[in-house]
Specification:
With about 450 residues, the chain is of the alpha/beta class. It contains 18 helices and 18 strands. The structure holds NADP nicotinamide-adenine-dinucleotide phosphate. The site of NADP nicotinamide-adenine-dinucleotide phosphate has 24 residues, from helix 7.
Length: about 450
């Protein structure tokens, strides 16, 4: 019997569990999927935008794995010094796969970044996704103009959520408070600003194109600014993904605005240098105009432009955080590894593995985690004949309970799902997420979990 703990129940964690079930020649494999939260699915539940129902429906595929009889979901279990230490987990299981993602956001490092009204996109996403750790509120209160810094898919998500109206948001599972605030939002100008050119933007074409289909928003681009990018004028040499992005932008440049109530303005070649205060809050972002340097980067021109903003969302990527007891490469924000095997001082640490963003950094779409998890599990199963020789707890869950832990099991999660359906019905909506720890744990405990 091979006992494996997977830490994290987002896509990389669940795909690791699935790969273990599929690839294991040992029929006797047992996988415990641990999560700090009482709810599974990681960023599929707490990162994918609520209006992306199709991507959210991936939860059904992940659910099938977590409901396999060889898998247990153990929610509400913190791994680390405040919960189960890494060393204890190692004693309880033959192998541990860390799939803890990239839990924080990168910083801009410019003056004014911490002004009231300036938030990381992650804080905004957590709020409208009902993440129980989200305490922030009042993002759009009193704001007319928003600046989103960065041109990746998260930037597109947050710009789109700001531009959607109540009728489009109401069918989602967004918490009621966020829905009310966004429905009443007075934000009409949404600038989404990249420091490089349109051919270097990180968003994917499908996500970019969607901005043009929002019923309440025009997308407004300045062809002269786009043309600062030589590849905008002649995109024929670009790789297909970038060429398609440029073609979408060219289409918008040729389309006059239709007078819709909100405007999304993709901007390029503007590097943020300072957030400017107005009456103690952010009032504008100062950007330096850049130009391409011919090597994929940009150089500053010493010319500046201020864009008004009472709301600033910094969407410049995620970053992994160290987990006490595991090695960490502070430069890369990842755990050092060889094909998924954790390296301690350059040497393979038997029985410890990583998959997902903590392994390869915060890049790729959800599906990228499948081959990533598969590689890690292939390494693990190669090592399994040696790993199973070590004596571990007969049932790790019994041991954890004896140590005072009360994990939220699958029945507890199902009770949360029922409570969310009931809340939605009471509000005259579909499923509506419970937004805080108390209501999630109350619902789970009601099921005796
Ligand atoms: P990302 O794709 O890495 O984009 C980060 C953006 O921030 C880039 O435009 C980057 O510009 C910019 N940036 C970084 N540092 C900056 C600075 N100091 N000043 C100004 N701009 C700066 O990150 P993300 O948007 O957070 O997305 C993370 C991952 O999740 C991506 O793989 C993404 O595709 C994925 N995701 C997918 C979906 C979806 O499929 N619908 C939705 C959300 C997220 P440079 O390129 O110049 O560095």
């Amino acid at each position: 019997m091979l006992h494996v703990a997977v830490v994290g129940s987002g896509p990389s964690g669940v795909y690791s569990a699935q790969s273990l079930l599929q690839q294991s020649v040992l029929s006797e494999v047992r996988v415990d999927v641990l999560d700090r939260l009482p709810c599974p699915y990681g960023l599929v539940r707490y990162g994918v935008a609520p209006d992306h129902e199709k991507i959210k429906s991936l939860q059904n595929n992940l659910r099938a794995v977590l409901e396999d009889e060889r898998v247990r979901f153990l929610g509400g279990v913190q791994v680390g010094p405040d919960g189960v230490p890494v060393s204890r987990l190692r004693e309880l299981y033959h192998a541990v796969v860390y799939c803890v993602g990239a839990a924080t956001d990168r910083h801009l490092g410019v003056p004014g970044e911490e002004l009231p009204g300036s938030w990381s996109a992650t804080e905004f996403v957590s709020w409208y996704s009902a993440h129980p750790d989200s305490v922030a509120d009042g993002f759009v209160l009193g704001a007319r103009s928003a600046v989103v810094i960065g041109v990746g898919n998260v930037a597109v998500d947050v710009a789109r959520m700001l531009a959607r109206g109540a009728a489009e948001l109401s069918p989602t599972d967004m918490p009621q408070a966020a829905l009310s605030a966004l429905a009443e939002s007075g934000v009409t100008e949404i600038s989404m600003v990249g420091r490089r050119g349109p051919s270097q933007a990180r968003f994917t074409t499908k996500e970019l194109r969607e901005l043009g289909s929002l019923p309440d928003a025009d997308v407004v681009v300045d062809p002269e600014e786009l043309a600062l990018d030589p590849a905008y004028l002649d995109p024929s040499e670009l790789p297909a993904a970038q060429r398609r992005n440029v073609e979408v932008l060219r289409g918008w440049a040729a389309t006059p605005p239709r007078g819709r109530p909100r405007r999304i303005r993709p901007r390029f070649f503007l590097r943020p240098v300072e957030l400017l205060a107005d009456a103690g809050r952010v009032g504008a972002v100062r950007f330096e105009r850049t130009v391409p340097d011919g090597r994929g980067g940009v150089t500053g021109t010493g010319r500046y432009e201020d864009i008004e903003a009472q709301l600033v969302l910094r969407s410049v990527g995620y970053r992994g955080v160290p987990l006490e007891g595991l090695p960490f490469d502070a430069d890369l924000g990842t755990v050092p590894h060889l094909a998924g095997r954790v390296l301690r001082d350059g040497v393979i640490s038997p029985g410890e593995y990583v998959a997902g963003w903590i392994k390869r950094g915060p890049t790729g779409v959800i599906g990228t985690n499948r081959p990533c998890a598969k590689e890690t599990v292939t390494s693990l199963l190669e090592d399994a004949p040696v790993l199973v020789r070590r004596e571990v707890a007969e049932d790790p869950l019994t041991a954890l309970r004896a140590e005072g832990l009360l994990p939220v099991e699958w029945s507890g999660w199902q009770a949360i799902e029922r409570a969310e359906a009931e809340l939605g019905a009471a509000l005259g909506r579909g499923v509506v997420k419970l937004p805080d720890w108390a209501s999630l744990l109350d619902a789970a405990r009601a099921a005796g979990s």
